[in-house]
Amino acid sequence: MLTSKQRAFLRSMANTIPSIFHIGKSGVTPELTESFGQALEARELVKANVLDNNLLDARSVAQTIADRTHADIVQVIGSRFVLYRKAKNPVIELPKL
């Protein structure tokens, strides 16, 4: 679980990173979930965009992927969302409580 201070810190970092995933009509597939897992291990902070042709909204897609990859949802704004998961070799140092 992230504290509000940590979530705010990650949101500020997410402003500068591009969306690396675009989720379309095929939805959340096992391959997409695996790709998210690999990206979270490499980057820790991942931004994604849910396209208009997807039947699900961004919040439900983010929740599904977060549950499957054991990640935390940092934010969901419109059709974009940001996920965070601490890697085995952390790159991002979160603020303390």
The helix/strand order is HEHEHEE
Helical residue percent band:
25-40%
Separate helix tally: 3
User: What is the count of distinct domains?
Assistant: 1
Computed over alpha carbons, the radius of gyration is 13 Å
How does this model look, in words?
This protein is an alpha+beta fold and 97 residues long. The protein has a single domain (4-84), classed as YhbY-like (Translation Initiation Factor IF3, 2-Layer Sandwich). 38% of the residues lie in helices and 21% in strands. The protein is built from three helices and four strands. The protein has helices at 4-14, 30-43, 58-69, and strands at 21-23, 45-50, 72-77, 80-84. A four-stranded mixed sheet has the order 1-2-4-3, with helices on both faces. β1 (21-23), α2 and β2 form a beta-alpha-beta unit. The radius of gyration is 13 Å and the shape is globular. The N and C termini lie close together (12 Å).
In short:
With 97 residues, the protein is α+β, with helices and mostly antiparallel strands. Helix content is 38%, strand content 21%. The protein has a single domain (4-84), classed as Translation Initiation Factor IF3.
Q: Which tags fit this structure?
A:
alpha+beta; 4 strands; four-stranded mixed beta sheet; Translation Initiation Factor IF3; about 100 residues; single chain
